[in-house]
Design a protein that fits this description.
The protein is α+β, with helices and mostly antiparallel strands. It is built from 22 helices and 24 strands.
Length: 634
C-alpha cells in the first residue's frame, strides 16, 4: 500500500490547452491574470511509473502504481537497477520518490537483438518487445531478479509522495535536492512565469524529440509553489496543480476489411472495425473502435458532422491513430479511394449474440440489446467486469474460465456461474458436481485449489469496490467511492434504498444529494436495485463477503472526519471549489443540499434559502471565520 496514493495526470492534447489550465488554476486559487504564478515544465517520459520508499536514506521498498492505492511489490527487481541508488545522502527520515523507469533506444535495440540471437540458437521464434515502454515494463515484472539485472534500465525521479518534513518551498528546488541526494533527475526541467513560455517549451521539446535517446510522449506542467499545490489538492485520480500536454498521436493509413459488433455488459452494441494490420505508434493494429452507429454515419453526439459528414464503409481507406494505451481510433476517410461498390453500413437492429431487439432510447447514441437477463454476452460481460482488476480482481477467473463455468450446467440445467453470487457459492456447488473439477480438461488439483484460494481471498472487499464491481451503468469507480464515503457501510446504504423504494416517486434523494453524483447515476442505481431479483442477489452476495474498510480508517482524525458538510454563499478567502476540496481532504463528506443528514453548513454572504433551511433544521452553522479556524487545525 503506497504511503500516499500514486496519482496520474490530466491530459491536454494541444499546447493551447495550457492556457485553459492556467485560467482554471487561477480561478481555483482566486488569483487574477496579473498575479505571479510559477510553473515547472518537464518532459513526460514514456515508461513505467514506480514508487521508491526510502527510510533514513535506505531503499526499503519499490512498487508499481497498480490501481494507485496498492501497487505490485517489485523491490527485488528494482534493487538490481544500477541507476537507482540504494542509499541516499542527507535524506529525510521517510521519503516516497515517484519516477519513471524506461529504456533508452540503444538499450532497447540491444535487448531485442539479444532475444533474437538467443531464439535462433534455441531454434525458436524470438519474443521481442514492440517498444521500449513494454520492454521496461517486462523487465520490472520478471519473476527472476537475475533477468531484470541483465536489462539496462534507466530511471528519472519526477515527484515526491509522502515525506517527513519538506525539502524546499518549490517543486523545482525539491527535485534539485533529490539530485543532490544521488537520484537521477531530468536535465530538461524549466521554470517559467508566463504560461506562453510553457507553450514555447512544448514547441522546443517537440523539435528535440527525435534527437532524444528515449521516448517521451509530451510534457508536464506543474505549479511550482508546494503550498499552492497543497491548496489545489486533487480531484479523482489527478492533481489540480499539474497537467500533461501530450504529443499528437501517430497515424497510419490502412484498409477497412469489415465491421464486427461486440456486446458489452451494458448491452451496448459496439462496432469494431477490422483493418489490414498496420503499425502505429510502435504496435501492430488490426482492430479499431467505431464507437456507435452515429459515429459510423459521420454524426457526433451533439448532432454536428464528424469527418465533414463522411460515413465509414467496408472497403474504405481509413486513417488509424492511437495515443498512449488507449484503443486505436479512426481519423479520416479517404473518399477519393472509396471503391465504387462500397455501400453505407447498415447497423443491426437486433443483438447478433442473442437475437433480442436492440433499441436506442431517448437521445442515446448507443443501441442496446434489451435481453438484460437473457443475453449471454451481457451476462458474461457483467461477470468479467465483476472479476476484473479494478473490481474484485480475481485473476484465476479470466474470461475463458468464466465462460467455462457459465457453459457447464448442473443437473437442473442451471449454469454453474450466472451471477456474481454464484462465484462465491461455486466451491460448495462443485463439491457434489460430477465430474469433479480436478478432472475437467485443463484442470487439476492444484489449479482447483488456487482458484478457490483466490475466490476466498476476494471475500475481503470494500463497500466501494463491491458497488463498482456490480457494473451498474454510470456507477464508476469514483461514484462508487463517493457513495461508500457518504453512507459509510452497506447496511446504511441498504436502509436508504429500502426507504426510497417504499416512497417511490421522488428518486433516490440521499444519493442525489451527494456532491459529484449526478441524477443520471442516482436514477441508474435505483433502476438496478428496484429489480427484486437483482436486489436479492446483492443481499445474498453481501452476506458472502466480509467488508474491509482498512485504509479508510487509517486516515488521521480531524474535526471534520466523517462529518457531512454543505457550503453555501460566497466565501471571501477562497473559492467554494477549494473549500470543498480541503474539507474532503480532512475527511468530510461534501453534500450539495441541506437536509437533516447534514452536520455542518458553512454560510457565506448570500446563502439565502440553504441557510434558512439549516436554521429550521437546527443544524450547526458556521461563518467563514469559524471555517478558517477549523482549517487551521489541519
Ligand atoms: S508527475 C501527481 N512528471 O506520466 C503527479 N509524471 O500520465 C504525478 N510521467 O503516472 C506524475 N514523466 O508515471 C510526472 N515528468 C513527469 C513525468 C510523469 C512521465 C508519467 C507518470 C504518471 C504518468 C501520468
Amino acid at each position: 500500500r503506497h504511503e500516499t496514493p500514486m496519482l496520474s495526470l490530466d491530459n491536454a492534447f494541444k499546447p493551447e490547452d495550457l492556457i485553459e489550465f492556467d485560467l482554471r488554476t487561477r480561478r481555483f486559487l482566486g488569483l487574477d491574470a496579473a498575479a505571479a504564478l510559477s510553473y515547472v515544465a518537464e518532459p513526460k517520459i514514456d515508461g513505467l511509473a514506480i514508487s521508491l520508499l526510502y527510510r533514513h536514506g535506505e531503499l526499503v521498498r519499490a512498487a508499481t502504481r497498480g490501481g494507485g492505492e496498492i501497487g505490485e511489490d517489485v523491490t527485488a527487481n528494482i534493487r538490481t537497477i544500477a541507476t537507482i541508488p540504494k542509499h541516499l545522502r542527507n535524506a529525510p527520515e521517510l521519503m516516497e520518490i515517484r519516477g519513471e523507469i524506461f529504456m533508452t533506444h540503444e538499450a532497447f535495440a540491444a535487448l531485442n537483438r539479444d532475444l533474437e540471437t538467443a531464439a535462433s540458437r534455441g531454434g525458436g521464434v524470438a519474443q521481442t518487445y514492440a517498444n521500449p515502454r513494454n520492454a521496461a515494463s517486462g523487465a520490472v515484472r520478471q519473476l527472476d531478479p537475475a533477468i531484470t539485472a541483465t536489462r539496462q534500465l534507466s530511471f528519472v525521479a519526477h515527484s515526491i509522495g509522502a515525506i517527513s518534513g519538506r525539502l524546499a518551498s518549490g517543486h523545482h528546488a525539491a527535485i534539485r535536492r533529490l539530485g543532490a541526494m544521488g537520484l537521477p533527475i531530468s536535465t530538461l526541467c524549466e521554470t517559467f512565469q508566463d504560461i506562453n513560455a510553457g507553450i514555447a517549451y512544448y514547441k522546443r521539446i517537440t523539435a528535440m524529440r527525435a534527437e532524444l535517446d528515449f521516448d517521451i510522449d509530451g510534457m508536464t506542467c506543474k505549479v511550482d509553489d508546494l503550498a499552492l499545490q497543497e491548496r489545489l489538492g486533487s480531484q479523482s485520480a489527478w492533481p489540480r496543480w499539474a497537467i500533461a500536454c501530450k504529443f499528437p498521436p501517430e497515424t497510419a493509413w490502412t484498409r477497412l476489411l469489415g465491421i464486427e459488433i461486440q456486446i458489452g455488459r451494458t448491452g451496448a452494441l459496439s462496432p469494431v472495425a477490422k483493418v489490414e494490420t498496420v503499425r502505429v505508434g510502435g504496435v501492430d493494429v488490426s482492430s479499431v473502435t467505431l464507437h456507435n452507429e452515429d459515429y459510423i454515419a459521420g454524426i457526433s453526439a451533439d448532432g454536428s458532422f464528424i469527418r465533414n459528414g463522411a460515413d465509414i464503409r467496408v472497403g474504405d481507406t481509413v486513417e488509424v491513430y492511437r495515443s498512449g494505451d488507449v484503443i486505436p481510433k479512426i481519423g479520416q476517410v479517404d473518399l477519393a479511394r472509396r471503391p465504387a461498390d462500397a455501400r453505407p453500413y447498415v447497423f443491426p437492429s437486433t443483438c447478433p449474440e442473442c437475437g433480442s431487439k436492440a433499441i436506442r432510447e431517448g437521445d442515446d447514441a448507443v443501441r442496446r440489446c434489451i435481453g438484460v437477463h437473457t443475453c449471454r454476452a451481457q451476462i458474461l460481460g457483467r461477470l468479467k467486469h465483476f472479476v476484473s482488476r479494478e473490481a474484485m480482481n480475481i485473476e484465476g477467473l479470466g474470461g475463458k474460465i468464466i465462460e467455462q463455468f457459465f457453459t457447464r450446467e448442473d443437473t437442473d440445467g442451471v449454469p454453474l456461474i450466472r451471477s456474481p453470487l454464484d462465484i462465491y457459492r461455486l466451491e460448495s456447488r462443485l463439491a457434489t458436481f460430477d465430474p469433479p473439477l480436478a478432472d475437467w480438461p485443463g484442470w487439476g488439483e492444484s489449479s482447483e485449489a488456487n482458484l478457490f484460494r483466490e475466490i476466498n481471498a476476494a471475500r475481503k472487499v470494500t463497500f466501494a469496490r463491491l458497488l463498482f464491481a456490480l457494473g451498474i451503468r454510470f456507477a464508476g469507480v469514483r461514484s462508487a467511492e463517493r457513495i461508500a464515503e457518504h453512507f459509510g457501510d452497506w447496511a446504511t446504504f441498504d436502509r436508504s434504498l429500502e426507504a426510497t423504494i417504499a416512497t417511490l416517486g421522488h428518486g433516490w434523494t440521499d444519493v442525489m444529494g451527494i456532491d459529484g453524483i449526478g441524477d443520471r447515476t442516482a436514477a441508474s442505481l435505483l433502476e438496478a436495485f428496484i429489480d427484486p431479483g437483482f436486489r436479492a442477489m446483492v443481499t445474498a452476495l453481501v452476506a458472502e463477503v466480509d467488508f474491509d474498510e482498512e485504509g479508510e480508517g487509517e486516515h488521521r482524525q480531524t474535526p471534520l472526519t466523517g462529518k457531512t458538510i454543505v457550503f453555501t454563499g460566497t466565501l471571501t478567502s477562497m473559492k467554494r471549489a477549494e473549500a470543498k476540496s480541503r474539507a474532503a481532504a480532512m475527511g468530510a463528506k461534501i453534500y450539495s443540499s441541506v437536509s437533516k443528514n447534514v452536520d455542518i453548513v458553512v454560510c457565506g454572504p448570500g446563502s439565502g434559502t440553504k441557510e434558512r433551511k439549516a436554521r429550521d433544521l437546527d443544524l450547526r452553522i458556521m461563518d467563514e471565520d469559524e471555517w478558517l479556524a477549523i482549517l487551521n487545525t489541519a
